[in-house]
Amino acid sequence: MLPITVKSKTEAALCPIRNVLANVNGKWQMLILLGLEDESLRFAQLKRTVGDITQRVLTENLRSLERDGYLTRTVDAGPPVAVSYALTPLGLSLVTKIKPLVMWACDAFDSVTAARAAFESRNA
Predict the structure, then answer these.
(1) Buried b / exposed e across 46-76, counting CB within 10 Å, b at 16+?
(2) Does the residue 4 lie in any domain?
(3) Rounded CA separation 110/88 (Å)
(4) How many CB atoms lie within 10 A of CB 84?
(5) Over the stretch 52-107, which tens digit does the pLDDT of each residue have?
(6) What is the residue range of 78's domain?
(7) Domain with 56 in it: what CATH number?
């Protein structure tokens, strides 16, 4: 088993699962990273690519991903001013790791949906 148990806040701060993966395993972070896999995108393009994300949530997640070194933000002074985002080598390496999980999710979707429906009917 992976070492997932911690006994203190200090140990928790040093835990890669809690410290690194917790910042990239959410729905929005994964979708943003996957959206940038093939090319850099401007903010509006990325928002359209993800689709159901608000401007505020996209901005917060982009800042977090930039802070952790997964993407870069480039400002072109214009006119008009254009801001684009691109994966860094670290971000690209992460995408290569999460892509199999994403593909598994696509393959398992019908099974998970059926399991949820069965659970709901048993517990209704």
Answers:
(1) bbeebeebeeeebeebbebbeebebbeeeee
(2) no
(3) 34
(4) 17
(5) 999 999 999 999 999 999 999 999 987 888 999 999 999 999 999 999 999 999 99
(6) 9-122
(7) 1.10.10.10
